[in-house]
Design a protein that fits this description.
This protein has about 190 residues and is α/β, with parallel strands linked by helices. It is built from 3 helices and 11 strands, in the order βββββββββαβαβα.
């Protein structure tokens, strides 16, 4: 599976599926997105994840199976920031899980759905999502083959309140999973 990080929580999968495009100006430091893809999906309706208008659809089938798992954007069942959808994407061989703006430790059903993924795209910056320590605990519980951190502050990219990647790297070093972390290079920003 080809995975390209386009900034914040936005990824292009197999040159055909865009997950969580951000709207113009919604995330400090990131250039506007102008993409063409077969399909676009959004984990929730906040501007930094729901920029569907930034993606021109080709009209083709994306060739991927996409499953949804309901979750919350906070640890109070959505009372603070609403719902969040976890997307599970499969090409028939590999399974990718995009956690969106997950704000809580997954319940048993959610954890069963994400466990053993080939790729786990996980928010690590805290403030609007789970923090670095919770992200490391979720990785330990889910045991993905590769961990791809997202939704963190990187230099001048991202919200000032969100933590940087280093905090997550320090937490994941406390586990046996550090060698599974794959840091994506930013594409096009």
């Amino acid at each position: 599976m080809k995975i390209e990080w386009l900034g914040h929580s936005c990824f292009l999968i197999n040159n055909s599926l865009v997950i969580d495009p951000y709207r113009d100006g919604s995330v400090p430091g990131y250039a506007p997105l102008r993409l063409t893809a077969d399909k676009v999906i959004c984990t929730h309706e906040h501007a930094d994840h729901a920029g569907r208008e930034c993606v021109t659809l080709s009209g083709k089938d994306c060739g991927l199976l996409i499953f949804e798992v309901a979750s919350w954007h906070d640890d109070q069942q959505g009372a603070l920031r609403g719902p969040n959808t976890i997307f599970i994407v499969s090409d028939g061989d590999e399974k990718l899980v995009h956690l969106g703006d997950l704000g809580h430790f997954p319940n048993d059903e959610q954890l069963a759905a994400i466990t053993g993924a080939d790729y786990l795209l996980i928010p690590v910056g805290g403030y609007y999502t789970i923090d670095a320590a919770m992200a490391a605990k979720i990785c330990e519980a889910a045991q993905p083959k590769q961990i791809i951190p997202m939704h963190y502050r990187w230099g001048e990219h991202g919200y000032a309140e969100i933590g940087e990647l280093d905090a997550f790297l320090e937490e994941i070093k406390k586990t046996t999973l550090f060698d599974r972390v794959a840091i994506q290079e930013l594409q096009g920003n």
